[in-house]
């Protein structure tokens, strides 16, 4: 029963973890698309705000870095789910928890701080302003998408905790002593006849009285 429950938790964790990986891949593709558009806008003679002294396109790099981070977390989650190792699961839970804390901090800053836009540097590519405009026009859809991502991350932590409590597969570890192999070896030893033991020591001689009696009996028989 425990083995079946462990297998189910492993499969569920892999499925939920794959959803996080899909979000990461989508963010990487979006960042690459923004970088391609930005590179076209620069052209052979970039405008003044794209010069060497202009600020770096932090929004593109941040999106790309976050997508790569989600993919790395997904890989660690698949390794943890496959091995069911307590150490791997603990590291995976720490990674997902840190992501949740970062997302919560950004959400609180956006909703409670009226001047939250001043906390971010100026984006020379204009993609950040386009994203804000898109979020305002499709706030309901984006809200449910964000809640779904947070829910998936919370469920992944819960499944990892359950899998950690169930423990790893016992057959994947070596036995600590040879006593565990005795039941498998007993049928092969049923017809085994042990060889007689030999003791190395001084030869044993009879007592003097026995030798004297033998000599008297031999003389009497003559």
TrEMBL record:
InterPro entries with a match to the protein in the record: Tetraspanin/Peripherin (IPR018499)
Segments passing through the bilayer: 12-38, 58-77, 89-112, 144-163
GO cellular component: membrane
UniProt KW Thylakoid keyword: no
Keyword tags: Membrane, Transmembrane, Transmembrane helix
Topology in membrane: Multi-pass membrane protein
Compartmental location: Membrane
Keyword Transmembrane helix on entry: yes
Primary location class: membrane
Listed name of the protein: Tetraspanin-19
Species of provenance: Nicotiana tabacum
Encoding gene, per UniProt annotation: LOC107792969
């Amino acid at each position: 029963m425990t083995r079946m429950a462990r297998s189910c938790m492993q499969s569920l964790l892999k499925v939920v973890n794959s959803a996080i990986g899909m979000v990461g891949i989508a963010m990487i593709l979006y960042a690459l698309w923004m970088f391609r558009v930005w590179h076209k806008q620069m052209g052979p003679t970039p405008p003044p705000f794209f010069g060497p002294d202009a600020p770096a396109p932090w929004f593109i790099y941040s999106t790309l870095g976050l997508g790569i981070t989600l993919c790395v977390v997904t890989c660690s989650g698949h390794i943890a789910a496959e091995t069911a190792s307590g150490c791997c699961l603990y590291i995976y839970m720490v990674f997902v928890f840190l992501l949740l804390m970062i997302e919560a901090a950004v959400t609180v800053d956006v909703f409670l701080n009226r001047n939250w836009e001043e906390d971010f540097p100026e984006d020379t590519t204009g993609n950040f302003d386009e994203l804000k405009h898109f979020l305002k026009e499709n706030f309901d859809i984006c809200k449910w998408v964000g809640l779904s991502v947070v829910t998936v991350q919370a469920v992944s932590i819960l499944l990892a905790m359950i899998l950690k409590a169930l423990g790893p597969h016992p057959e994947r570890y070596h036995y600590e002593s040879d006593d565990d192999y005795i039941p498998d070896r007993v049928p092969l030893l049923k017809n085994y006849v042990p060889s007689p033991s030999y003791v190395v020591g001084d030869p044993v001689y009879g007592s003097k009285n026995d030798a004297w009696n033998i000599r008297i009996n031999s003389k009497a028989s003559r």
